[in-house]
Amino acid sequence: MQIEERNRDEDETDGDGPGGGGLPEELQLRERRRARIRAARAQLEAEKGEKLVSRHQKSFADPEANMMKTGEAALTYCYNAQAATSEDGIIVATGLSTSASDAPQLLPMITAVERNTGQRPVWVLADAGYRSEENFAALGELQQRALIALGREGKKGKLPKGRLSRRMKRTLGLPWARDRYGHRKTQAERPFAEIKQRMGLRRFALRGKEKVEAEWNLACAAFNVKAIWRAQLA
């Protein structure tokens, strides 16, 4: 009798229906839980294809987010935010992907810059996350001048595979290329540091790729307002 009374009290307090187990209302019904599990599995199969293994996971709270490693080396469900800046540090294009890899975003970001500014970048400076033989080949076809790191700055790595990667390594070793690439850290990295630290956006508040992308665009717009204000004061 005491157990039944305790259960009734908890149901009245927590609002759980029979068998709810403390789950949100939309997950309490067994068929709904099964449907969400089936939908998550179908999405994983569509994304991973033959590479799908048992360790792959999907978030029920935000099925569009994917598991990624953060800067603190922790695994969590994330989106990959992109931003391209002008030479004076103003964000001129943004992007958001569900892939942990930056490399597939290089060409779309160049296209976004051209669409937003009306002209293609004179130079593209990008960190090692954007390196790939495919990207180097595509940049060559576009006749787009670019300097893309092949590893961590200041650390000697193995000779990269691929003719175009080796050519990029030789180019980055030239004094003029090192000097030009050095501007990337001060201009391209600054927006991310300021948005995270000064503006306090270390995680997105919304769910779903479309809403998260809107939140990221709003943060970038706020950064630009502050950057332009500082430039006017100077």
Brief overview:
The protein is mostly helical and 234 residues long. Helices cover 49% and strands 12% of the residues.
> Percent helix among the residues?
40-55%
Mean pLDDT across every amino acid position: 83
Q: How large is the count of helical segments?
A: 9
Order of helices and strands: HHHEEEEHEHEHHHH
Strand content: 5-15%
Label the overall shape: globular
Per-chain topology:
Elements (H helix, E strand, L loop, with lengths): L1 H13 L10 H4 L1 H19 L17 E4 L5 E4 L1 E6 L5 E7 L8 H12 L6 E3 L6 H10 L3 E3 L14 H10 L2 H13 L2 H8 L11 H25 L1
Parallel strand pairs: 5-6
Antiparallel strand pairs: 1-2, 3-4
Overview of the structural elements:
Helix 5 (133-142) links the parallel strand 5 and strand 6. The strands form 3 sheets. Strands 1-2 form a two-stranded antiparallel sheet. The model has no long low-confidence stretch (mean pLDDT 83). With 234 residues, it is mainly alpha-helical. It is built from 9 helices and 6 strands, in the order H-H-H-E-E-E-E-H-E-H-E-H-H-H-H.
Defining traits:
234 residues; mainly alpha; two-stranded antiparallel sheet; 49% helix
